[in-house]
């Protein structure tokens, strides 16, 4: 899809009237809710910004994959509604920092793997190998710049990244973005956030520490391979993630996907020795605050931010960040990773046996988690190892039949 170079336009997206409420009613309800929560200002961000930035529309219209799959997706099944928009030209009273959010039905992407970006030559070959998906036009190519675990796959200039040995590649980030554009696609960066075991191993202050001490918390015993995690309460962690986001924005990645905005799976014994804030029912405020901080930083650089969550983790209830009335970002990518959606999944009192084909598992998990995304623009990612072309196509078709019209393949 060719870009319109006639000058940037600013868009405002009208909000859908959910549950019979007007936008004013939603804002009033949110204000009352926040007043009841209390203490939001203490954790360092203002709720007013997200409340005034309610650009959400329904998502019901709508790691590392093998991009060599020849998958055909029937556009006729993409029946999701499009959010209404109105265009405001430069020079009007509209806020100059507002950019168009990715609306349902507008985001079609393929995701490359770490192996694909090991060099510029392999990247160009991978881009040349992206197949045609029938009448569906792939517009974006997602690049895994920082992956779950903390490894960075470009030549970052972050000193902590180098000192902690997180950097695994010498390929220049500007060259990666340029190669994607030269191939006729729009570059999108994927940045894993708090599921990072590398930086806190070198800089304990960036991770969780035991209450009243400087001792580092790890997610299991040393004998069992326990590792530290980045903490949203750490200024160093937030500075580090912001620096990486800045590098992606400055390199020309116009869309930044922030994944792993989660807490570790704390046990009761962990919570007993950690900061008491982690045991509180409003601990989600730390994650929404962190997400909004990254959103404002990315937006101020001229790019847009999407949030990615795991379908399996959402089912388990590890979805603290999904607070539509608090989040500035209005678009969420839901990763249906078939490597995670297998065996027995337990969420609260519900147990699912995830057997059958990827198509059958897609239908089953969407049926249980779809309502969690009713206030978001929603994009479905189909991922996992060993999925055939036909299996991925059918899984995407099942998600489309459920009302989702934006996809990431891989």
What does it look like?
The structure is a single chain. With 410 residues, the chain is an alpha/beta fold. The protein contains twelve helices and twelve strands. It has helices at 23-37, 48-52, 120-128, 159-163, 173-182, 199-202, 235-251, 268-271, 284-300, 311-316, 358-369, 389-401, and strands at residues 10-13, 85-88, 108-111, 140-146, 186-192, 255-259, 304-310, 331-337, 343-347, 350-354, 377-383, 407-409. Strands 3-4-5-6-7-8-11-12 form an eight-stranded parallel barrel, surrounded by four helices. Strands 1-2 form a two-stranded antiparallel ribbon. Strands 9-10 form a two-stranded antiparallel ribbon.
- Give the strand content: 15-25%
Annotation field: number of helices: 12
> Which sheet architecture does the biggest sheet show?
8 strands, parallel, barrel
User: What's the overall average pLDDT, rounded?
Assistant: 80
Strand order of the largest sheet: 3-4-5-6-7-8-11-12
Total strands: the figure is 12
Shape: globular
Secondary-structure element order, as H and E? EHHEEHEHHEHHEHHEHEEEHEHE
Low-confidence segments, given as residue ranges, are 1-98
The rounded Rg comes to 21 Å
Distance between the termini: 20 Å
Helix-and-strand structural type: alpha/beta
Helical amount = 25-40%
Features of the shown structure:
410 residues; alpha/beta; eight-stranded parallel beta barrel; two-stranded antiparallel sheet; 12 helices; 29% helix
Question: How does the SSE layout of this entry go?
Answer:
Layout: E1 10-13, H1 23-37, H2 48-52, E2 85-88, E3 108-111, H3 120-128, E4 140-146, H4 159-163, H5 173-182, E5 186-192, H6 199-202, H7 235-251, E6 255-259, H8 268-271, H9 284-300, E7 304-310, H10 311-316, E8 331-337, E9 343-347, E10 350-354, H11 358-369, E11 377-383, H12 389-401, E12 407-409
Parallel strand pairs: 3-4, 3-12, 4-5, 5-6, 6-7, 7-8, 8-11, 11-12
Antiparallel strand pairs: 1-2, 9-10
């Amino acid at each position: 899809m060719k870009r319109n170079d006639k000058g940037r336009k600013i868009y405002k997206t009208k909000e859908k009237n959910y549950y019979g409420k007007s936008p004013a009613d939603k804002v009033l309800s949110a204000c009352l809710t926040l007043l009841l929560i209390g203490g939001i200002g203490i954790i360092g961000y203002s709720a007013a910004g997200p409340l005034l930035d309610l650009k959400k529309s329904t998502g019901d219209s709508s790691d590392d994959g093998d991009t060599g799959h020849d998958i055909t997706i029937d556009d006729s099944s993409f029946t999701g509604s499009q959010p209404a928009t109105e265009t405001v030209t430069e020079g009007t009273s509209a806020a100059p920092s507002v950019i168009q959010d990715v609306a349902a039905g507008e985001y079609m992407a393929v995701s490359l793997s770490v192996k694909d970006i090991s060099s510029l030559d392999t990247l160009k070959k991978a881009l040349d190998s992206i197949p045609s998906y029938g009448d569906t036009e792939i517009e974006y190519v997602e690049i895994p710049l920082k992956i779950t675990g903390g490894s960075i796959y470009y030549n970052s200039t972050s000193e902590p990244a180098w000192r902690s040995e997180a950097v695994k590649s010498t390929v220049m980030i500007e060259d990666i973005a340029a190669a994607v554009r030269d191939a006729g696609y729009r570059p999108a960066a994927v940045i894993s956030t708090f599921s990072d075991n590398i930086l806190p191993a070198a800089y304990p202050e960036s991770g969780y520490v035991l209450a009243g001490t400087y001792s580092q918390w790890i997610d299991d015993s040393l004998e069992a391979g326990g590792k530290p995690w980045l903490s949203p309460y750490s200024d160093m962690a937030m500075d580090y993630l912001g620096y990486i986001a800045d590098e992606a924005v400055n390199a020309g990645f116009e869309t930044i996907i922030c994944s792993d905005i989660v807490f570790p799976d704390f046990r009761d014994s962990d919570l007993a020795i950690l900061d008491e804030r982690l045991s509180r029912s409003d601990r989600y405020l730390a994650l929404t605050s962190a997400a909004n901080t990254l959103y404002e930083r990315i937006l101020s650089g001229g790019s847009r931010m999407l949030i990615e969550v795991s379908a399996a983790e959402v089912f388990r209830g590890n979805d603290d960040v999904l607070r539509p009335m608090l989040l500035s970002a209005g678009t969420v990518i839901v990763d249906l990773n078939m490597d995670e959606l297998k065996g027995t999944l337990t969420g609260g009192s519900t147990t699912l046996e995830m057997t059958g084909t990827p198509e059958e598992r897609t239908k089953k998990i969407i049926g249980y988690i779809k309502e969690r995304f009713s206030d978001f623009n929603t994009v479905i990612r189909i991922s996992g190892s060993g999925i055939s072309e036909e299996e991925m196509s059918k899984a995407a078709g099942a998600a489309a039949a459920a009302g989702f019209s934006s996809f990431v393949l891989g």
